[in-house]
Amino acid sequence: MTAKSKPQSKQATANQTDTGTPSPSRESQISPNTPKSSNKMWGGRFAGGPDALMEAINVSIGFDQRLYAQDIAGSIAHCTMLVDQKIIDREAGEQILDGLARIRDEIEDGVFTFRTALEDIHLNIEGRLSELIGDNAGRLHTARSRNDQVATDFKLWVRDALDGLDAALRDLQAALIDQAEAHAATVMPGFTHLQAAQPVTVGHHFLAYVEMLGRDRGRARDARARLNECPLGSAALAGTSFPIDRGQTAKALGFDRPTSNSLDSVADRDFALEFLSVAAITATHLSRLGEEIVLWCSAQFAFAKLSDAFTTGSSIMPQKRNPDAAELVRAKTGRIVGALVGLLTVMKGLPLAYSKDMQEDKEPVFDAAEALSLSVAAMTGMIGDLNFDEARLAQAAGDGHTTATDLADWLVRALGLPFRQAHHVTGTLVQLADQKSCTLAELSLADMRTVEEKITDAVFDVLTVENSVKSRTSYGGTAPDNVRAQAVRARERFL
Ligand code: ARG
User: Fold this and answer.
1) Which of 63, 282, 388, 440 gets the highest tally of CB atoms within 10 A of its CB?
2) Are 75 and 140 in contact (CB under 8 A)?
3) How far away, in angstroms, is 266 Cα from ligand 1 center?
4) Is 314 considered catalytic here?
C-alpha cells in the first residue's frame, strides 16, 4: 500500500503534547523542563536523563509528526514482512498491526499525545504501541533502525509532495491554456530589456509559461522516478543478519525496488534536494509571472485588472488596488530557494553514513512544499481572474515603433535590400517619425521616399500591429493561428 498524507491540519490542531498545549511549536519545545529519566526507547545504558537543553535541541516531534501516516505505513509493511519471513510470530505481528491501526486512528481523531521526551515520530509511535500492546511492541524494531525508517518515511512524504505538485501545476497550465485560447489574437507589446520590442499575442505569452511549467513537471517526474527505491531494511547502516525480504516491503510501499547500498540508503538526502531544486525552479518561474501581473495591473501599464478576489485595498489611499497575491508569489520564491541552499549546506561534507545533522532535512522541505503549493494555487486563481483591456493593449502594442522589424523585413523581401542596409534605412525612418512625433504608419509615402526612393504603398500593409503578428508564422511564432494550434497541442501534451 502507498502511504497517503492525511489532512494534517486536523491532527495539528487537536492532538496534545505532554505539556498540555496544542501540538508543539518550535517555541514550546525549548522551554526547559528537566526530564527525570533516560529515554525509555534507547536509554538502556543511560543512568540519568538528558539536560533540558539536550532535549530541546534534539527533539523533532514538533515537525516530524507530519510523517505519521508514512511511518505507520512503513511499520505495517515491515511487520507484515517479518511475519511472512517467520522472523516474528504471527500473533505478535497481529497485535502490532492492530496497535498501529489504533494509533493512526488516535492521531487522525486528534486524541494522540505527542511527547517531546520521546524525541521524534518514530519513537512516539513505538512508545504508544508498547502502551497499547505491551512487550510485543518491541519486536517491530527487529531488523530495522530509525535510520532506514526515517529515510523511508521521508521519501514517501516527498513522493506524495511531488505528485501533489504535478497535479497542481497541471491545473495552473489548464488555466493558462484557457486564457491563451481566449486571447490567441489579442495583441500586446512583447518586450526585451522591458523595452517594447515587437508585438506578440497575449495567448503566446501565456503559452510560454505553459512550456516552463511543463518542464517543471518533467523535472518532478524525473525526481520521482529516481527517488522510488526503498531504503527500508538497510537498518542502521550495514544491513541486517535477519533473513528479511526487502523486495516485499519495497513493493508494499509502492517503490519500484529496494535501494542497492545500505550506506547510501541511510546517508543520502538527494531526493529531498531534488524536490527542493524542482521547487526552486518552479517558484522562480512563478515569480516572473507574479512580477508581470504586478506590472500589468499597475496604472502605468494598465494592461489588465484583477478583481476584488485577488487584490487588497490600501488603508490610506482609496484609489489603490494592490496585487498582494502576485507579490507574495514573487516573494515566496525567497524562502523556497533558501530551503534548497539551507539543505545543501546541511548535507555538505557529512561523512557517511547517518548523522543527526540530517534531522534538519525536514523543515525546509515542509516549508517549501507548503509555500509552493499555496503559490501555485494562488497563481491558478489569479490567471483565471485576470481581465485584459484589449484596446489599451492594442495601443501599447504599437507604441515605440514595434513594427520597425517588419519594415526592415519588407525592405529585404520587396526591394531586395541586404538586411543590414534595410536595418539602416529603417533606423533613419524611425528617427524621421520621432522628429515628426508620429508612428511609422503615419509617415507619408513621400516622407519615406526621401530615405529610400524605391519604397511603395505596399509597405503600409506591414506596419500594422495585426499584420505584424499575423506574419509570424514560423514554427513557435506568435501568429494567432499558430497560437491556436499550439494551445490545442498543449492540451494534448499536458492535460
Ligand atoms: N529523528 C531522526 C531524524 O529525523 C530519526 C533518525 C534518528 N536516528 C538516530 N540514529 N538517532 O533524522
Assistant:
1) 282
2) yes
3) 10
4) yes
Residue 215 identity? R
Residue to mutate (ligand 1; options 126, 150, 156, 365; most atoms within 8 A of CB) = 150
Find the mean pLDDT for residues 413-442. Answer: 95
Q: Which three cell numbers stand for residue 365?
A: 522541505
Write the CA distances from 408 to 10, 137, 188, 438, 455, integer angstroms.
64, 81, 20, 18, 11
pLDDT band for position 116 (cuts 50, 70, 90): very high
Mean pLDDT of 82-111: 98
- pLDDT (0 to 100) of residue 19: 46
- Distance (angstroms) between ligand 1 centre and the Cα of 150 equals 7
Catalytic residue, candidates 31, 314, 355, 444: 314
Is 437 an active-site residue?
no
> Of 197, 377, 211, 386, which Cα lies nearest the Cα of 307?
386
Q: Output the residue whose Cα is nearest ligand 1's atom 11.
A: 356
Query: Catalytic: which of 193, 260, 315, 474?
Result: 193
Distance 60 CA to ligand 1 centre (A): 9
CA of residue 370 to ligand 1 center, whole Å: 23
Where residue 26 falls among pLDDT bands split at 50, 70, 90?
A: very low
Whether 104 shows a pLDDT value over 60: the answer reads: yes
DSSP states of 45-72 as a string?
T--SPPPHHHHHHH--HHHHGGGHHHHH
CA angle (443, 445, 450) in 5-degree steps: 90
417 three-class SS:
coil
Q: Which of 115, 120, 124, 357 is the best mutation target for the ligand 1 pocket, counting ligand atoms within 8 Å of the beta carbon and taking the most?
A: 120
Tens digits of per-residue pLDDT, 312-335?
Answer: 887 888 788 899 999 999 999 999
Q: Please list every protein residue whose CB sits less than 6 Å from any atom of ligand 1.
A: 60, 64, 120, 146-147, 150, 354, 356, 358-359
Beta-carbon contacts of 190 under 8 Å, excluding residues fewer than 6 positions away, are 196, 197, 198, 199, 200, 205, 402, 478
What pTM value is reported for the model? 0.91
Which is the closest atom of ligand 1 to the Cα of 64?
4
Q: What is the pLDDT of residue 36?
A: 57
| Closest to 273 (Cα-Cα) out of 227, 221, 318, 214 | 227
